Task: inverse folding
């Protein structure tokens, strides 16, 4: 009498349809030891692989992966070599085409080398010319004085106004000389 719930497991509604529900049970559900053992025995595989066999399988798989990786790397290197050869051939063909158009039979590389030497000669001449002119010396002296003043007056940079004006005038002189040479 007391082992059963006070409410039935099924109830008939006023419109005569069955409404099933479960009564709220206070007692826990217990399973027998043999049922638990039976279920746990079914969940583990019957033919488990021994550890030594599993290690052998893992080693074999790793060897196959390493072999495939080495094969792919070798194939990649051969493709790279082939691409490099094709690019070299294309560059040689392009250079030969430029050689035919180059004056006096100079090769493309020789023409570039000659142009590079000309640029180096011109830049060294400009550097010498720059060092010898009074305008550039004034710019260099003005820059040095301005930097020294700023270092000496870190907290009061407005004290360097006179040096800044001299530097600006020297730069303006160089600019006007440059524009005069460009316009002529």
Result:
């Amino acid at each position: 009498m007391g082992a059963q719930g006070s409410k039935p497991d099924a109830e008939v509604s006023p419109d005569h349809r069955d409404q099933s529900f479960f009564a709220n049970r206070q007692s826990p559900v217990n399973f027998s030891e043999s049922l638990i053992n039976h279920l746990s025995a079914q969940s583990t595989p019957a033919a488990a692989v021994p550890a030594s066999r599993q290690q052998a399988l893992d080693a074999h798989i790793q060897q196959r992966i390493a072999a495939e990786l080495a094969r792919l790397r070798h194939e990649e290197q051969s493709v790279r070599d082939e691409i490099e050869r094709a690019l070299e051939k294309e560059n040689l063909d392009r250079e030969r085409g430029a050689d035919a158009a180059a004056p006096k039979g100079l090769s493309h590389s020789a023409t570039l080398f000659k142009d590079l030497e000309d640029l180096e000669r011109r830049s060294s001449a400009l550097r010498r010319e720059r060092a010898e002119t009074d305008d550039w010396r004034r710019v260099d002296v003005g820059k040095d004085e301005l930097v020294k003043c700023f270092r000496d007056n870190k907290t009061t940079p407005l004290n360097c106004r006179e040096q800044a004006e001299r530097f600006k005038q020297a730069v303006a002189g160089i600019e006007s000389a440059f524009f005069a040479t460009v316009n002529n």
